[in-house]
Design brief:
Layout (H helix, E strand, L loop, with lengths): L2 H4 L13 H15 L6 H10 L2 H23 L18
Helix pairs in contact: 2-3, 2-4
């Protein structure tokens, strides 16, 4: 990914000049971090058509590792000073 692509990954990236493949990968990431369940069935079908099983596994593992490490750093107090941090209850507790 080139820097020009990274700069377009902001709210509203759906209307950006990113390729449909990159937009689809971002839809997966958005669904993963929204924690509202899996992506909608139409997005799941598009992901399976566009990406191989190995690519989907790699993206899923990458997202999970990023999310887990980010949580660990915040719990250890290692987040950047300028980062807004909120405290939320664990669901079900």
């Amino acid at each position: 990914m080139e820097e020009e692509h990274v700069e377009q990954i902001v709210d509203g990236h759906e209307a950006s000049g990113l390729s449909p493949r990159l937009k689809l990968a971002l839809q997966l990431a958005d669904a993963f971090f929204a924690a509202d369940g899996p992506p909608p069935p139409d997005v799941q079908a598009a992901l399976q058509q566009e990406f191989s099983e190995a690519e989907l596994v790699e993206m899923g593992i990458g997202l999970a590792l990023f999310h887990g490490v980010a949580k660990m750093l915040i719990s250890l107090g290692c987040e950047p000073e300028q980062m807004d941090v909120g405290i939320h209850r664990t669901p079900g507790t």
